Structures are given as structure tokens and as C-alpha cells.
Amino acid sequence: MKKFIKNVIIIFLLLFVAGIIFIFWANYTMKKDSENYVSYQITDVPTIKTALLLGTSKTLNNGQPNAYFDNRIEAAWQLYRSGKIQYIIVSGDNSRKDYNEPEDMQQALIRKGIPENYIFMDFAGFRTLDSVVRAKEIFGQHKIIIISQKFHNERAVFLARQNGIEAFGYNAKDVNKYAGFKTNLREYLAKAKAYYDVLTGVEPKFGGQKVLIP
């Protein structure tokens, strides 16, 4: 019995160590493979017809404005104003009646001065993988600029390129390290999960009718 318990503990420890190694490897690979395609400088990204704006909640749990959301909206506006893009796909979660990331982003962009008919909403962007693959499969875009914070763009650009999309990332302004600590910590696990999804061929949860972007 003691030998059995010892073997179980050894196996558990080996699996634990393997899991830690996999997490670090996935994070290293994504950062390395995407580093030449993501930038804070608008001059570094090419001129492309369509951008993909990744969703997040416009407010925090305490009701205060979410800096991640506001900074992504500002980055999208900068790209549009500079002429780097013509159209924007806003992709996010719409799983509840009282929660609608694409609509919140659309309204924020309209308030910035972007015409409504230049904004396309993807209500099935429940995960980053779904958002980037649907940009190709549903909206017909094989070349895009992805807008989010750097940590998120690294994952999104990696996923997009693994799925045959020529993707570049324009990094929205980060939040301060204290406010974003939990988010950045979760990102380590999110990158590992995304890497696993690539290895196992996971596909978006939902399909849908094709949407024509002029």
C-alpha cells in the first residue's frame, strides 16, 4: 500500500512539473512567434482594410470604467483616424441579455466619430480563438489588424497565424501593473490553453451566415 501511494505521489508530481513546463513553454512560444507582428507604434502596422477589436467589459464589477475597454476603443480610433483601416469587426461576448460587448464597443466607436456602417458586430466572440477564426470564416478576412493590449495581442496574433490569417497586432495602452496584476496572471494560463487548442485542433463554438465586408 505504501509503495502504491508513493507511486501515485511521484506520478502526480511528474504531471505537475510537466504542466508547469508546458505553461512556460506555451507562453515563451507565443511571445517569440508574435513579437515581430505586434507593436505600440501605429507606423509599424501595415495599412489593412479591416481591424478586429477584441471585446472586454466596459465596466468593472464595482461599476467603475474599465481601462482595458477604454484604451482599446482609443486604439481603434487611432487606427481609423490615421487611415490604417477602413472597417472594424467588434467581437465579444453576448451570452446574457444584460451583457453585450459588441454593442458596447460599437456605441463607443460611434461616439468617437466612426460611422456605424463601418462597424461590423460579431456576437459569438466568446473566446479569442472564436473571434480570430470567425474573422476569416464568417467575415471573409484573411489579413487583419488585431486591437487589444499587448499580452492579449500576443495570443490573438499567434492563434490567427496558426489558422491561416495574416495578422498584426496594434497594442492598446496597458493599465497600471497593480490594476492589471490578476489579468496578467490569468494570461499565463490562457496562453497555455490556447496553445493546447492549437495542438488539438479546437474550432469555434458557433458558425453562422457569411457577412460581406465591402
Summarize the structure.
This protein has 214 residues and is α/β, with parallel strands linked by helices.
Task: Provide an overview of this structure.
With 214 residues, the chain is an alpha/beta fold. 49% of the residues lie in helices and 14% in strands. The protein has helices at 2-34, 67-82, 101-112, 128-137, 150-162, 181-200, and strands spanning 38-39, 50-54, 87-91, 119-122, 143-149, 166-172. The longest helix is centred in the first third of the chain and has 33 residues, at 2-34. The chain is globular. It starts with a helix and ends in a 14-residue tail after the last helix. The model has no long low-confidence stretch (mean pLDDT 92).
Ranges where pLDDT stays below 50 over 5 or more residues in a row are none
Class inferred from helices and paired strands: alpha/beta
* Beta content: 5-15%
Large-scale geometry: globular
Q: What portion of residues is helical?
A: 40-55%
Q: State Rg.
A: 19 Å
Give the ordered list of helices and strands.
Answer: HEEHEHEHEHEH
Number of DSSP E strands: 6
Tally of individual helices: 6
Please list the strands of the largest sheet in the order they lie side by side.
1-6-5-2-3-4
Q: What's the main sheet like?
A: 6 strands, parallel
Spatial gap, N to C terminus: 69 Å
pLDDT averaged over residues: 92
